[in-house]
Amino acid sequence: MRIHFKRSYDEDIRLFEDWRRMAKYAVLLAVMIALPALVSAYFLGEVTLVLIYCIAGMGLMILAGHTGQISLGHAAFMAIGAFSNLWFMEQGMSFLLALPLSAVFTGLVGAIIALPILRLSGIYLAIATLALSIIIEDIAIIAEPFTGGVGGVFAPPVDVLGTSVDRYGSPNLFYWMCLSVVVIVLLGYANLLRSATGRSFLAVRDSEVSARALGVNVTRTKALAFGLSCAVTGIAGALYAHFVQVVNYESFLVLLSINLVLLVVIGGLGSIHGAFFGAVVVGLMPQFIAIARDFLQGSVGIDISAYPGLDTTVFAVIIIAMVIYEPLGIYGFYMKIKTQWQLFPLARRDMFRRSKSYLKTERMR
Amino acid sequence: MSLLSVENLAIHFGGVKAVDGISFDVQAGEVFTIVGPNGAGKSTIFNLISRFYQPTHGKIVFDGQDITRTPAHNIAELGIARTFQNIELFDHSTVLQNLLVGGHTKRRASWIEDVLHLPRSRANEREARHAVEEIIDFLDLAAYRDKMIAGLPYGVRKVVEIARALASDPRLILLDEPASGLSVEETADMAFWIEDMKKDLGLTVLMVEHDMSLVSAVSDRVLAVVEGKPLALGTSAEVQSDPRVIEAYLGTAA
């Protein structure tokens, strides 16, 4: 195990602990940038979807992982982000302007919705946000001038600084665009977590009472977290709209909301890494299942495509297993392995014992 | 000069009069202790002062300012910090991060500056770190600085909670049973720390405590409370020998 001796406060404030860690992320970023040269166009499309899931996952992670407020309705904010982005573009705005604007709009809507809804906690909050997700399907049909009604809206061509960025026409550019959005959101998220604002989120998650006693305005903090979370999710929604090229009321069903919750839970609540691990699992799982199906049919001779809903079942089993055996998600599992490795053979079982749940804010209200 | 004065404070939960007409003055620079049997309303008084509960009637004045209607999240900024009976730390953070939240009221950068990590946000962080390091030094927590709360022993968590309260740079600190669950040795340490807070930091301490060894070691004045009503006020020895207090604790002779 390496021990890092710190010599100034700035070493705690900066994003990377030491140059080794910085180098690791630099290599990762380099690989991601070079990816179009390494994989097929089809796989690149899948990775692009995973990146969009990463953004949505970071959005929900701010709220569920770091502020401790569950939301089963985040697909609704993806929808608001998508429809508002397309609407802004229809009004003649360029994509580069419409994207941040739709994020701000979604964030504001989120913060306004948050004020009444975040008076609830735990299971009641989950139900209220679930309702949001269901309502948005109807709103998407009713608000026809903005959403195109049942038919939906076709995404107009995206033009970034004079270059056309299209998922099919220029998949590489579209991929790089998503990647840069991921990096920007990630930086903002990391900055947030190393600041007083981020710590106030964690404080509200772990103990609302003492947060209040220390001068944190809990209502405002929750609304801010919800707003930021929605803004980021809105960005993901907007990119998703350009990814699938046509969105209607069926693009953002409750199932997508559930998928986002699964994403943060599988990835590991309370860590940015978790959003990425979760996005890889949730984004690529349908592919894995399809590959497994082909394999079973081709080599073993078992045809499982006769059973509809198998994907969902496999998904469900994985989630249940995850919650029971690895409640800290993939990131928690990764940390365990890492600690075992670093301390070998001194790691003890009880070093990884579970502590209190993250939704611990029911007391003293 | 009295730093905190509580006048005829009362809170009723339905028919239960948890606190019923309590008045006291805490002088600047003293250690004022509230004692009383379980359910006497001691912690409720704390929750009233830190504004978690709205009093049914009565008045709370801190440093000449009426705080009876001040929102709870503005209390820390005025200079009142507190600890909790059943430790309320942020379990999934390190000791350092917990203490940094203590300095929350000192921040000046807005959330937008934080997200963009602008110079003011960084300056905030440096100052907060500096202030926190002094407290870590003061309470001898350096060994635990980067440890997660969830893995710390109980006695250390108690100290961390006090450290977090001190990080908000208060003038008045409310300690809710600082010695509960501590060993004899740790209680003795706690007595020294309370003395240090009073002498070195010039803090005023309002404390609820059951451990009479700690109460007599550090308290300037003691208020005995029974069933939400004040019973006796005086030095620790006076209150402990008061026949009404003895009766309240032990019951009357048959």
UniProtKB/TrEMBL annotation, chain A:
Coiled coil: none annotated. CDD domains: TM_PBP1_LivM_like. It comes from Pontivivens marinum. It is a multi-pass membrane protein. GO terms for molecular function: branched-chain amino acid transmembrane transporter activity. The chain crosses the membrane at residues 25-43, 49-65, 72-89, 95-115, 122-143, 173-192, 223-243, 249-269, 276-293, 313-334. Its main location: membrane. This is Branched-chain amino acid transport system permease protein. It holds the Pfam family BPD_transp_2. One of its GO terms (cellular component) is plasma membrane.
UniProtKB/TrEMBL annotation, chain B:
Keywords: ATP-binding, Nucleotide-binding, Transport. Pfam families: ABC_tran, BCA_ABC_TP_C. GO terms for cellular component: plasma membrane. GO terms for molecular function: ATP binding; ATP hydrolysis activity. InterPro entries: AAA+_ATPase (IPR003593), ABC_AA/LPS_Transport (IPR051120), ABC_transporter-like_ATP-bd (IPR003439), BCA_ABC_TP_C (IPR032823), P-loop_NTPase (IPR027417). Residues 4-252 form the ABC transporter domain. It comes from the Bacteria. Signal peptide: none annotated. PANTHER family: ABC TRANSPORTER ATP-BINDING PROTEIN, CONSERVED COMPONENT OF ABC TRANSPORTER FOR NATURAL AMINO ACIDS-RELATED. This is Branched-chain amino acid transport system ATP-binding protein. It comes from Pontivivens marinum.
